[in-house]
Amino acid sequence: MDRTFDDLVAEAEAVSVDGWDFSWLDGRATEQRPSWGYARQVAQRFAQATAGLDIQTGGGEVLNEAAELPPTMAATESWPPNVAKATRLLHRRGVVVVADPDEPPLPFADEAFDLVTSRHPATIWWSEIARVLAPGGTYFAQHVGPASVFELVEYFLGPQPEAREGRRPDTEIADARAAGLEIVNLQAERLPMEFFDIGAVVYFLRKVIWMVPGFTAEAHRDRLRELDARIRRDGPFIAHSTRHLIEARKPT
């Protein structure tokens, strides 16, 4: 028997959204991964670095996937539940987790790291990244691109023409260069996502809180009910994520 709208929503509201692990969505939603394999590539760089910094580490899950970490390794995170989760996960590996508000300045000395990384940072302060990088050091990151998952965003918020222009790779390249960094590599992809039930939508929007700011199932119940009926009638709700891989270097 198909589960009711109320059951699916209640379940998705009750589950924890701490950290950056999306395994609760297994079988309920899919997202095609970028072809470049960020976790694999960043792990290779960690193994070769002497001092690393992971900005906006979430719950530390991506960082913890690396088999080998630099002798000196730090991570920043702003959301208190994620700070606690990352601390539990990463301290045993010698990583110092620093609670940081994601605003300048980064709480580290000039030229402290030869590798700075980030996966899906909400904000990117290029001047600070350049400041904490040692000469010859690398910033290696996977960023969310423009209008990512906007089929879902605009379903709830309506057209967002100005927001669609944000997070453009060409703008980020210009900002990185203005901070004194050299662009070594840039790749971009647009990737399909599928949501198979309304619970997956509720969980996703609770976890990725900047998609629909202030989202609650109660406040958006009418639109959620309409979307539930649409999924039951037409099949999965399809959206598209945008991602770009960026590698920048601080000149020697």
From TrEMBL:
Top-level taxon in the UniProt lineage: Bacteria
Transmembrane residue ranges: none
UniProt keywords, alphabetically: Methyltransferase, Transferase
Domain Methyltransferase type: 53-140
InterPro entries linked: 23S_rRNA_MeTrnsfrase_RlmA, Methyltransf_11, SAM-dependent_MTases_sf
Record GO biological process: methylation
Record-linked CDD domains: AdoMet_MTases (cd02440)
Pfam families for the chain: Methyltransf_11
Presence of keyword Methyltransferase: yes
Keyword Transferase: yes
GO molecular function: S-adenosylmethionine-dependent methyltransferase activity
PANTHER family noted in UniProt: METHYLTRANSFERASE (PTHR43460), METHYLTRANSFERASE TYPE 11 DOMAIN-CONTAINING PROTEIN (PTHR43460:SF1)
Name of the protein: Class I SAM-dependent methyltransferase
Organism encoding this protein: Actinomadura rubrisoli
